[in-house]
Amino acid sequence: MNAVMENTLAQGKNAFLQMACLSCEEKNISLERLATLIEENQDAILDANDRDLAENKDALDNALYQRLKLDAGKLKQVVQGIRQLVKLDDPAGKVLATTELDDGLILTKRAVPLGLIGIIFESRPDVMPQILSLILKSGNAVVFKGGKEAKHSNQAFMDAVIHPLTAELDFLPEGWASLMESREDVQAMLNYPQYVDLVIPRGSNQLVQSIMEKTRIPVLGHADGVCHQYVHGSADLDKALEVVIDSKTQYPSACNALETLLVDEAIADAFLPRLAQRCENEGITLHACEASITYLPKAKPATPSDWTTEYGTLTLAVKLVLGVEAAIAHINQYSSHHTDGILAEESAVQARFLKAVDSASVFVNASTRFADGFRYGFGAEIGISTARTHARGPVGLEGLVTYKFELTGHHQLVKDYVGASPARQFTHRTL
Amino acid sequence: MNAVMENTLAQGKNAFLQMACLSCEEKNISLERLATLIEENQDAILDANDRDLAENKDALDNALYQRLKLDAGKLKQVVQGIRQLVKLDDPAGKVLATTELDDGLILTKRAVPLGLIGIIFESRPDVMPQILSLILKSGNAVVFKGGKEAKHSNQAFMDAVIHPLTAELDFLPEGWASLMESREDVQAMLNYPQYVDLVIPRGSNQLVQSIMEKTRIPVLGHADGVCHQYVHGSADLDKALEVVIDSKTQYPSACNALETLLVDEAIADAFLPRLAQRCENEGITLHACEASITYLPKAKPATPSDWTTEYGTLTLAVKLVLGVEAAIAHINQYSSHHTDGILAEESAVQARFLKAVDSASVFVNASTRFADGFRYGFGAEIGISTARTHARGPVGLEGLVTYKFELTGHHQLVKDYVGASPARQFTHRTL
Questions:
Q1: A27 and A87 in contact (C-beta within 8 Å)?
Q2: Residues of B numbered 50-109 whose beta carbons fall under 8 angstroms of chain A's beta carbons: which are they?
Q3: Beta strands B383-385 and B393-395: pairing type?
Q4: What per-residue confidence (pLDDT) applies to B61?
Q5: H helices, E strands: number in chain B
Q6: How does pLDDT run across B156-204, given as a tens digit for each residue?
Q7: Distance between CA atoms of B428 and B431, rounded to whole angstroms?
């Protein structure tokens, strides 16, 4: 129990109830004003970010330093993103289905905001205004925790942008967005499923895994991205090789990058020597199974842990399999169910793979790197989920809504439909 | 850890992977044969049920005894239900959306079976074949636990129906449906989110609550049904009174029966004396707030716990509130978010209530007893969920599916869309 945190969460849940009633116009006014406040307070935000950079200079490698660093260009992108969000349809309020149950008894299934969302993310401070804009557009409330390296930047966003925004716009309730200060606050938050409806962790595998293991609140995210490509005997080998290289090298640390390549025994002779050559040129280290290593002279022998490893670097595991069923079985056993593809020209084999592979994204003749909310055309990305319920795969704004059933009648009674003689019959007509 | 249970669950998960590939025709053949096997083995099933009845005669009250008892009529209904299911659309395989990302790069969002489902239900043995038929139709696998009172009946279904069905139809994998023997098995099952994708508890509030508190696996169900009606100042009082009585009395032990009645102060004089009279005639005991009890001479004083109690009997809590906002606030604080209604003629008030009440089903001028999958026209009901993610409110077969993204291309590479000059542009055209 944590009384301060419980109070924050209770206030957040109450704020959600008001946010859920905002009109689309009020949401868009908030987004426009959010964008303008960021522009107007750019100096204060960049000053705070300079303090973060100075305090963390020695602790961060160059990649993390670049992620932590804000500049006018990054803020301009954030502001552009917020203004694009204004143009998107409101994800809440949409009618998903309408059914006439009987004359004058109308059932409407309607998308509605989801609730109080807990968001935990690591160092990048530009994630925070992005998240706040998605929360506003969807009509939810949020408690979030940024990386401790970005604490001044995040606090500056709160002080210079969020607090003035909330004070200025009467229709925004106090507490619709609050900052968690510490890891202990996050731990406490995970223990309040009565207030928090969804947790979205964005960060290292370790962060996501530890959150998934600790809470009964639904989690939207993915711990691992162990993605596969399978080169079938019918593949166009020239094109397949290009897709494999793109899947591995286009951004190796991304969750949708290729980690394990399955090659059909039927084409081992024809494909593996070319793979070896190309990987050497691209600086890719291969970890090869016993059957494939004879074709891959510079490869290291793979160990069982290679089949479950997300390298995140220019390393690729290679395994020979005999036929599409063996490939499917390997993938269903070892994949993180994020994104897995086949390279094949035979349409029956493509169809079998699409049906039998149990992953959020299943690809035919395309780079695994396409598995992304923006590339899928969602306009905004909340995250990529390897959960099977609520939202799966790349998730757009629809991941921040649920639905409710609205029934409007003329004082109909159930006793007239059940037990009466003659009983009234439902019409169940789709409108 | 429980090695036997882990083995059962691993087999169930593997069976799911095969079930997910069944054609609609194979599913319907299974359902037809399931129905026939129940008809052919009626005697064995009823004999087993007689043993359950004999062994539990002294331990059960009449209502529970009637729920436990099978007869030819109940089995005929089960068989009819299974044959109706054959006619429903296959919930899996449906295309939910298609987008062209670029020329020849097509994204399909497709409904697919959900996984291995854990189901726990109490004494009614006719629930078991219903559940198995829903699992078959949706292409999932199941581990389930019936009430211990029904153990002979449940075992007879397995021995006389499920095992022969699985042996007879080559396309049904071993282990697609298994029985858990004990509460310890259920506890173990709740600890394996890597195998079990959804838990559906059907039984007492206590059972459901304890399962929700013990597992990280998503739970489809509801612990409480604390449902409200609010009689607004603009209500048609004659008709409102009939709806209140139907909501309370049509089946008082159902989860969608009325438990708390909110009455606007504006109509206290006009409405409460009539309510008192009618409730006396119907045998309803009232627990009234301080402000309303003066109008309700036979009522008992309500205590704070009345606002969160699901009586399940002919008892009704009554509270006076001033205006629709006070009614909404009471409901959002005390409701179990199952089903809450307003009785009002003013359309602005109706609209405000529909928008602001945060419950799975929100009604205007209709009995709460309509909140039910069959009445909503879903054809089959999995359960009623008060969760906010995955499935909310009455849930039909769509609660047993998820979706995946299928992307088929012509060897497109992400590097041509990102960083290339000129970069290819996505078309993002809805097909």
A1: no
A2: 99, 101, 105, 107
A3: antiparallel
A4: 85
A5: 14, 17
A6: 999 999 999 999 999 999 999 999 988 899 999 999 999 999 999 988 8
A7: 9
pLDDT over 80 at A123, yes or no: no
Cβ distance B414 to A375 less than 8 Å, yes or no, reads: yes
Separation CA A288–CA A299 (nearest Å): 6
Say yes or no: A332 contacts chain B, CB-CB below 8 A. yes
- Kind of pairing between the strands at B95-102 and A285-288: unpaired
CATH number of B3-91+110-220+382-401: 3.40.605.10
Summary mean pLDDT of chain A: 95
- A46 to chain B, any CB pair closer than 8 A? The answer is no
Section A64-80 average pLDDT: 92
What is A274-290 written as a DSSP string? HHHHHHHHHTPEEEE-T
Of B330, B373, B377, nearest in space to B222 by CA: B373
* pLDDT tens readout for residues A43-58: 999 999 999 999 998 8
Describe the strand order of the beta sheet including B315-321 as a list of residue ranges: A429-430, A95-102, A105-113, A401-412, B361-366, B339-343, B227-231, B258-264, B315-321, B285-288, B300-301
pLDDT band at B364 (very low <50, low <70, confident <90, very high): very high
DSSP state of A160: I
| pLDDT tens for each residue of A281-310 | 999 999 999 999 999 999 999 999 999 999
The per-residue pLDDT for A174 is: 96
Q: What is the DSSP string of B53-71?
A: HHHHTTT--HHHHHHH---
Task: Give the amino acid at B60.
Answer: L
Q: Distance (Å) from the C-alpha of residue B62 to the closest C-alpha of chain A?
A: 21
**Which chain A residues touch B410 with a CB distance below 8 Å?**
365
Residue B380 has what pLDDT?
82
Nearest beta carbon to residue A197 from set B343, B388, B402: B388
pLDDT at B123 over 80: no
A277 CB-contact burial (10 Å; exposed 0-12 / middle 13-18 / buried 19+): exposed
* Mean pLDDT across B15-36: 97
Instruction: Provide the Cα torsion B256, B260, B266, B268; round to 10°.
Output: 120
Query: What are the structure tokens assigned to B340, written together?
Result: 């809450």
Place of tokens 């522009």: A39
Which residues 397-426 of chain B have a CB within 8 Å of chain A?
402-415, 417-418, 426
> Is A389 close to B198, i.e. CB distance below 8 A?
yes
Lateral strand order in the sheet of A227-231: A300-301, A285-288, A315-321, A258-264, A227-231, A339-343, A361-366, B401-412, B105-113, B95-102, B429-430
Residues 339 through 358 of chain B touching chain A, CB cutoff 8 Å: 343, 350, 354-356, 358
Q: Is A254 on the interface with B (CB under 8 A)?
A: no
Closest CB to A409: pick one of B105, B365, B417: B365
B329: left (phi over 0), alpha (psi -120 to 50) or beta: alpha
What is the average per-residue pLDDT within A312-330?
97
Contact of B235 with B344, CB cutoff 8 Å: yes
- Ordered by start, the domain boundaries in chain A are 3-220+391-404, 227-370
Note the residue count of chain A: 431
- The ipTM assigned to this model is 0.94
Interface membership of B243 toward A (CB under 8 Å): yes
CATH of domain A227-370: 3.40.309.10
**In chain B, what residues touch A414 (CB-CB under 8 Å)?**
246, 250-251, 367, 369-370, 375
Residues ≥6 apart with Cβ < 8 Å to A185: A2, A5, A145
Fold of A3-220+391-404: Aldehyde Dehydrogenase; Chain A, domain 1 (3.40.605)
User: A-B interface: how many C-beta pairs under 8 angstroms?
Assistant: 212
